[in-house]
Write a structure and sequence with these properties.
With about 260 residues, this protein is α/β, with parallel strands linked by helices. The chain folds into two domains: about 5-160, SPOUT methyltransferase, trefoil knot domain (Alpha/beta knot, 3-Layer(aba) Sandwich), CATH 3.40.1280.10; about 180-255, tRNA(m1g37)methyltransferase, domain 2 (Trp Operon Repressor, Chain A, Orthogonal Bundle), CATH 1.10.1270. Helices cover about 40% and strands about 15% of the residues. The protein contains ten helices and ten strands. The protein has helices at about 10-20, 20-30, 65-80, 105-110, 130-135, 150-160, 170-175, 210-225, 230-235, 240-255, and strands at about 5-10, 35-40, 50-55, 65, 90-100, 115-120, 125, 135-140, 195, 200. The strands form three sheets. A five-stranded parallel β-sheet has the order 2-1-6-5-8, with helices on both faces. Strand 9 (about 195) and strand 10 (about 200) form a beta hairpin. Helix 8 (about 210-225) crosses helix 10 (about 240-255). The longest helix is centred in the last third of the chain and has 19 residues, at about 210-225. The protein is elongated, with a radius of gyration of 23 Å. Bound molecules: adenine. Adenine binds near residues 95 and 141.
Length: about 260
């Protein structure tokens, strides 16, 4: 399984260093991820390589021109053809107006056979004809506005790549992830057993695997109950989870009353 990603950007130097480090680097070395960064400047017209212009109708800021984006996407289509796995394109436009990026979508990207092509917008916006003419999927990584689509593209690639078997050292880590099943993570500890007066919970030192499993499940539920109760409302609970949650609700109520 290889994830194929293309990033069309005016700022290749912003993107390349991140792809060249840590897990994203290792995934590429292992052939699990393939990335190509395309400089949008190479698709601009004229001597001055202009990528942006003032907005029709006036107003502040600059608008990214549509024609270089069309040319870049057309060049990729020509290069990759439109048939085999890893050759046809799934066109993505990171944008605060897009559909929310979630763990579900990261899984969908991991399983995608087409190339993921990220068109990174910049300046105050991108000429609407990119949306009208190329119909990219708009995806948002959150309700805030960033300066460009590069960081969102990297966020989405990172979230998808770590789900590919063989990218993380331990194949179970992605499965027991926070959000793999809409629960937050349980607390983690490593040596020493006591640090600045704070002890590691006894059960984790007990060697009792079933007790540890139950404790972790309970603490994942507790963390979700405290920090993201909305996630619990959206999911159905097993009998065990329901029992643990009843205990947690009791414990939290007692804690609140002291
Ligand atoms: N571009 C600017 N802000 C963004 C956001 N929140 N998500 C995706 N792309 C963006």
């Amino acid at each position: 399984m290889t994830l194929h990603c293309d990033i069309i950007t005016l700022f290749p130097d912003l993107v390349q260093p991140v792809l060249g480090q840590s897990m994203l680097k290792r995934a590429q070395e292992k052939g699990l991820l393939e990335t190509r960064v395309h400089n949008l400047r190479d698709y601009t017209e004229g001597r001055h390589l202009v990528a942006d212009d003032t907005p029709y109708g006036g107003g502040a800021g600059m608008v990214m021109k549509a024609e270089p984006v069309f040319r870049a996407v057309e060049a990729l289509r020509r290069q990759y053809g439109e048939s085999e796995a890893g050759t046809s394109l799934r066109l993505l436009l990171p944008s605060p107006q897009g559909r929310p990026f979630t763990q579900r979508l990261a899984e969908e990207f991991r399983d995608e056979r087409r190339r993921l092509v990220f068109v990174c917008g910049h300046y105050e916006g991108i000429d609407e004809r990119v949306r009208l003419g190329l119909a990219p999927e708009e995806i948002s990584i959150g309700d805030y506005v960033l300066t460009g689509g590069e960081l969102p593209a990297l966020v989405m690639i990172d979230a998808a790549v770590r789900l590919i078997p063989g990218v993380l050292g331990d194949p179970e880590s992605a499965e027991r992830d926070s959000f793999a099943e809409s629960l937050l993570d349980y607390p983690h500890y490593t040596r020493p057993a006591e640090l600045r007066g704070l002890a590691v919970p006894e059960v984790l030192l007990s060697g009792n695997h079933e007790a540890i499993r139950l404790w972790r499940r309970k603490e994942a539920l507790r963390s979700t109950y405290r920090k993201r109760p909305d996630l619990l409302r959206d999911r159905s609970l097993s009998d065990e989870d329901r029992r643990l949650l009843e205990v947690i609700v009791d414990e939290e109520a007692k804690e609140a009353s002291v």
